[in-house]
């Protein structure tokens, strides 16, 4: 995979595999012996480790084993929304202490949809503010996870398979934040961050600079 150009891999996707447990498993057994070898080999090759969909113990095990920085490429603070796909303060701090980055998403289910069915771009800024306050400006970025190929036909399949992640979002039209439904809205992120008081240097870090730093370090 590395020879083919792959430079970032998730260790798990929600469920258990040979590497470890995903965030939706009933168990939380952490990295397997094989998983430890995978992390070590990714370090050797220079493939970035993404823990976005990993279980809590798998996450902490990978942080302990990895010699390189790791990321949550697309996950939000669980303190603001108790989704199994979001990350605890402890996990976010651990990634930051390793030098990694947490990417805030534009997926509505990762926000408090119980109180308001369709959160907006303003909620994204609240999550960015929380993460920056918790781990510092150098360890927060954007991992919006917007997939414009999703359709009303494809969405119910995921909805039925992972109801605990979808958290009541009824259809694909409300899957992404109001005011951030596709790439044409991206300039509104910059405007919103400036309005929140972030400096030009800080905005550039949030828009991609922090991830670029990690990419350079890991990919060497």
Describe this structure in words.
It is globular, with a radius of gyration of 17 Å. The longest helix is centred in the last third of the chain and has 20 residues, at 200-219. The two termini are 17 Å apart. It is built from eight helices and five strands. 40% of the residues lie in helices and 7% in strands. The model has no long low-confidence stretch (mean pLDDT 94). The protein has helices at residues 33-45, 56-65, 89-97, 121-135, 155-161, 163-166, 187-195, 200-219; strands spanning 8-10, 48-50, 70-72, 101-104, 140-142. It has a five-stranded parallel beta sheet with strand order 1-2-3-4-5, with helices on both faces. Strand 2 (48-50), helix 2 and strand 3 (70-72) form a beta-alpha-beta unit. The protein is an alpha/beta fold and 220 residues long.
What are the segments in which pLDDT stays under 50 over at least 5 consecutive residues? none
Count of discrete alpha- or pi-helical segments spanning 4 or more residues: 8
- What is the total tally of β strands? 5
Helix content: 25-40%
User: Could you spell the SSE succession in H and E letters?
Assistant: EHEHEHEHEHHHH
Short description:
The chain is an alpha/beta fold and 220 residues long.
Record keyword descriptors for this entry:
220 residues; alpha/beta; 5-stranded parallel beta sheet; 8 helices; 5 strands
Secondary structure layout plus pairing:
Layout: E1 8-10, H1 33-45, E2 48-50, H2 56-65, E3 70-72, H3 89-97, E4 101-104, H4 121-135, E5 140-142, H5 155-161, H6 163-166, H7 187-195, H8 200-219
Parallel strand pairs: 1-2, 2-3, 3-4, 4-5
């Amino acid at each position: 995979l590395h020879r083919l150009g792959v430079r970032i891999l998730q260790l798990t996707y929600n469920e258990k595999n040979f590497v470890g447990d995903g965030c939706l498993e009933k168990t939380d057994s952490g990295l397997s012996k094989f998983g430890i070898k995978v992390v070590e080999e990714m370090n050797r090759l220079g493939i970035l480790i993404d823990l976005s969909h990993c279980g809590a113990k798998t996450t902490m095990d990978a942080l302990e084993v990895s010699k390189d920085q790791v990321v949550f490429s697309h996950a939000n603070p669980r303190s603001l929304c108790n989704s199994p796909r979001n990350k605890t303060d402890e996990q976010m701090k651990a990634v930051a202490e390793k030098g990694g980055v947490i990417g805030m998403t534009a997926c509505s289910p990762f926000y408090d949809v119980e109180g308001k069915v369709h959160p907006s771009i303003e909620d994204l800024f609240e999550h960015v503010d929380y993460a920056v306050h918790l781990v510092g400006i150098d360890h927060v970025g954007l991992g919006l996870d917007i997939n414009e190929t999703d359709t009303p036909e494809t969405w119910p399949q995921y909805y039925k398979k992972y109801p605990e992640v979808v958290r009541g979002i009824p259809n694909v039209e409300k899957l992404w934040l109001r005011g951030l439904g596709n790439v044409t809205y991206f300039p509104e992120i910059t405007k919103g961050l400036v309005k929140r008081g972030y400096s030009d240097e800080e905005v550039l870090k949030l828009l991609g600079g922090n991830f670029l730093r990690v990419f350079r370090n890991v990919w060497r």
